[in-house]
């Protein structure tokens, strides 16, 4: 009796444990046994191992394709974006120098307007800049050439005139190519429009002043004070355009370098006295090929 009582009590305890919510799934019958047990629908709908393997292999292929696409996408990133995210040291240095150039040029434009800090000196600075204008020098050279009576003087003046024309055309071409605006928004004046001095880079006045001063120092016999004044004049003409807000500092520096290049070019193709006399005769319509 005690043994049967113990068996029945253990059975009741097992049933009470299995009736708990966490063990309810253990009381449900199996849908399909390993030995073919279960209803015929479940045995008929049972899938073969080959089909199960085929279906399980398909979802595994999709992540592989998506993973390969994810790996391909970074390779298609535009190169420009990579350069913007990782700028080179050269690009950072150039941008920094340009920012410094613009800042200093704006601060030095003290005669840009009459309301500027040095606005009262604007007319004097503009007159100084006019002494380096291309139209002024071309007209002055032609007048001196018509009044010159020596072959040496005419030779120097003809070569100077050709150098001035070369300077005006070269600077105008570079300005149209670069199209850099000045530090201050200004409308070009009448003489600047005639000389095609519209944009900022390179500075036409600085180029012309450097070329003319070097030309006169090389081909004219001048005293030391005059030579110093000529060099000082070239520098003041270049800086006057910066004070007027027409050019940046880098425009002035590049203009001086371009003027020296023009002088070197004219020295290499220097026209002789006979060639200059031929050009003068053609220009005055008195040249004859038979005499």
From TrEMBL:
GO CC, alphabetical: nuclear envelope
Domain Phosphatidic acid phosphatase type 2/haloperoxidase: 155-267
Keywords from the named record: Membrane, Transmembrane, Transmembrane helix
Transmembrane segments annotated in the record for this chain: 124-145, 157-178, 216-237, 249-271
Molecular function as annotated in GO: sphingosine-1-phosphate phosphatase activity
Cross-referenced SMART domains: acidPPc
Amino acid composition bias (Basic and acidic residues), ranges on this chain: 67-79
Region of interest called Disordered, as start-end residue ranges on this chain: 1-82
Name of the protein: Inactive phospholipid phosphatase 7
Originating species: Collichthys lucidus (Big head croaker)
């Amino acid at each position: 009796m005690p043994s049967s009582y113990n068996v029945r009590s253990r059975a009741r305890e097992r049933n009470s444990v299995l009736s708990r919510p966490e063990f309810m799934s253990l009381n449900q019958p199996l849908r399909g046994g390993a030995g073919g047990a279960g209803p015929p629908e479940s045995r008929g709908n049972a899938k073969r191992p080959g089909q199960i393997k085929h279906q399980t292999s398909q979802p595994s292929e999709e992540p592989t394709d998506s993973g390969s696409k994810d790996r391909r996408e970074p390779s298609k990133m535009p190169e420009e974006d990579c350069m913007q995210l990782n700028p080179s040291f050269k690009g950072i240095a150039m941008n920094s120098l340009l920012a410094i150039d613009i800042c200093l040029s704006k601060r030095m434009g003290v005669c840009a307007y009459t309301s500027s800090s040095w606005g009262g000196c604007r007319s004097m600075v503009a007159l100084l800049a006019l002494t380096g204008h291309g139209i002024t020098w071309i007209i002055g050279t032609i007048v001196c050439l018509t009044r010159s009576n020596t072959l040496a003087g005419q030779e120097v003046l003809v070569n100077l005139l050709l150098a001035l024309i070369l300077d005006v055309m070269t600077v105008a071409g570079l300005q149209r190519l670069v199209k850099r605006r000045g530090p201050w928004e200004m409308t070009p004046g009448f003489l600047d429009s005639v000389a095609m001095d519209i944009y900022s880079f390179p500075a036409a006045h600085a180029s012309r002043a450097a070329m003319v001063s070097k030309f006169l120092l090389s081909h004219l016999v001048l005293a030391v004070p005059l030579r110093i004044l000529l060099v000082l004049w070239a520098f003041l003409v270049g800086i006057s355009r910066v004070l007027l807000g027409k050019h940046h500092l880098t425009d002035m520096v590049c203009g001086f370098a371009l003027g020296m290049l023009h002088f070197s070019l004219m020295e290499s193709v220097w026209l002789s006295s006979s060639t200059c006399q031929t050009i003068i005769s053609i220009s005055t319509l008195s040249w004859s090929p038979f005499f």
